[in-house]
C-alpha cells in the first residue's frame, strides 16, 4: 500500500481534472502527497513503488525475476554482455547446500527496486529518509538494502527465511560465485583482487538472455517452494 493508503486505483482528483466524475474514490500517491510527487517509481507489475520506504503491498513476485534478469553483474564490466544477477542467483542456488538454496536464490532481492552500488562506493552512500519515516533520518545504503530485503521476503510469504541470506554459508557461496565469474567472464585483472577464495569447479560457459534468466529463476523458485 502506498503512503496515501492505496495503490493502483482511479484517483478522484486526477479523474476530476480530466473531466470525469469519480467522487468517493481515493487519491493516488502523487495527489495525496503533493510535496513528494516524484518520490516513486513504476514497477514492472504497474505498481507505485516508493524506494525509500518500500511497502509490502507494492511488491509483486513477478517483479523479482523480471528485474534481476535485466540487471548485469559487475556493473556491466564483463566480457559477457548478458550475465545477469538472476543467472548468478540461480547458478549459486544450484551449488549451495539444500537448506540454503532458496536463500541464495533470493539473496539479491534488494536490487529489485534499488540499483546496485559498487562495493568501493557503498559505505559512503547515505539516503535521506522521508520526514515521517519511523527511525533515523539518514540511512546507509546497506541499511536501505536490508529494509528492502525485509519487506520483499515478507511480501512473498518467506519472512521466516530472511535471516538466512546473512548467514556465513550464503556469504561464502556469494564470494565463490564472484571468483568463478571473475575467472570465466571478466577481463584479466589489472591488479590482484586480494580475495583468497577458490572459484567453484563449475564453468560458466554460456550467459542466458533476459528471457531465459527470468524463466529459469521462476522455475528454480517454484521448485524450491512448491508454488
Topology:
Blueprint (H helix, E strand, L loop, with lengths): L11 H6 L11 H4 L8 E2 L5 E2 L13 H6 L16 H11 L5 H5 L20 E3 L9 E3 H15 L12 H18 L24 H16 L2
Antiparallel strand pairs: 1-2, 3-4
Helix pairs in contact: 4-8
Describe this structure as you would to a colleague.
- The chain has 227 residues and is mainly alpha-helical.
- The protein has 2 domains: 1-39, no CATH class; 53-225, Hypothetical protein af1432 (Orthogonal Bundle), CATH 1.10.3210.
- The chain is built from 8 helices and 4 strands.
- It has helices spanning 12-17, 29-32, 63-68, 85-95, 101-105, 141-155, 168-185, 210-225, and strands spanning 41-42, 48-49, 126-128, 138-140.
- It has a two-stranded antiparallel ribbon. Strands 3-4 form a two-stranded antiparallel ribbon.
- Helix 4 (85-95) packs parallel to helix 8.
- The radius of gyration is 20 Å and the shape is globular.
- The two termini are 24 Å apart.
Labels describing this entry:
two-stranded antiparallel sheet, 2 domains, Hypothetical protein af1432, mainly alpha, disordered N terminus
What is this structure, in a nutshell?
By secondary structure, the chain is mainly alpha-helical. Helix content is 36%, strand content 4%.
User: Residue ranges: pLDDT <50 for 5 or more in a row?
Assistant: 1-6
Mean pLDDT across every amino acid position? 89
CATH architecture descriptor text of the largest domain: Orthogonal Bundle
Strand order of the largest sheet: 1-2
User: What is the CA-atom radius of gyration, in angstroms?
Assistant: 20 Å
